[in-house]
Design a protein that fits this description.
The chain is an alpha/beta fold. The chain has eleven helices and nine strands. Belongs to the DEAD box helicase family. DDX19/DBP5 subfamily.
Amino acid sequence: MSTEAPETEVPHSDVAAAQVDGSGPPGKGSELQEIEANVEVKLADLQADPDNPLFSAKSFEQLNLSEGLLKGISQMGFVKPSKIQEKALPLLLMNPPTNMIAQSQSGTGKTAAFSLNILSRINVDLVAPQALVLAPSRELARQILGVVTHMGQFISGLKTQAAIPDPTKRGQKYESHVLVGTPGTAMDMIRRKLIEAKDIKILVLDEADNMLDQQGLGEQCTRVKQMLPRNIQTVLFSATFPQKVIDYANKFAPNANVLTLAHEELTIEGIKQLYIDIDKDNDKYSTLLKFYGLMTQASSIIFVRVGDSHRDLCSKLINVDSSNCPGT
């Protein structure tokens, strides 16, 4: 899929795909699920003051963005930067470019943040890949592409494209300014010279924690980076920061500015978390019934570890209270 702006209006499918991570329908305002998070900043330059006003933006106008970008942001419904954007954008947009490692959940505007940084650095006169975004799934890659395309719709000559295999374009090179895809496919396309990497200057890794939970994706991301120019700006986002993500991020994006959420802000408001220790697998079902007996809710989702076990659980729940359990 390749899209060029502003010669044609952004397709409906792209607009729909852009309704993710805080962007809203044109004219309807932002749909950010803003949390009152304390964003903690650790600068790569240890002598710099993270509380300096230069490292915070209360409005998009403060960021010296192009008129086309400001128009795209407004069209997406953003009125002012979210908490994450407020801290991340000034650091992302600094020159010379600096790496970033950031903790941010879906719905906080992170996709818009790295998309804005990418679009502000693209030279549209050079028709070649200049930014590569890696996501753990094709579905997420398409959503990210929708955000980039929607935000950049008023940048004349901009081309964006999904780095996803297309049987109708076998052997065709991917020459758009911004490419979004999955690690394995991107690695294969670079190896086969379908993507020329010499002009790529920004690499974004989204949902790093999900990447590392899937076998081989972290290693594939590392291989992709090794195929790119050494002086690129590397940006890594992750919803959670377990030790394995921290260790990986520090190697993947060295000497980076680091943004993290205060510990008490890691859970989105309105969601309660708890766990129950169960000695035997056979006790899980009875415990689940007791748990639901204490709660009042219209609907819920139950995740199971073993693929086929959901059918047995669904059957039992139907027999108890005629629940509707469309297993997948």
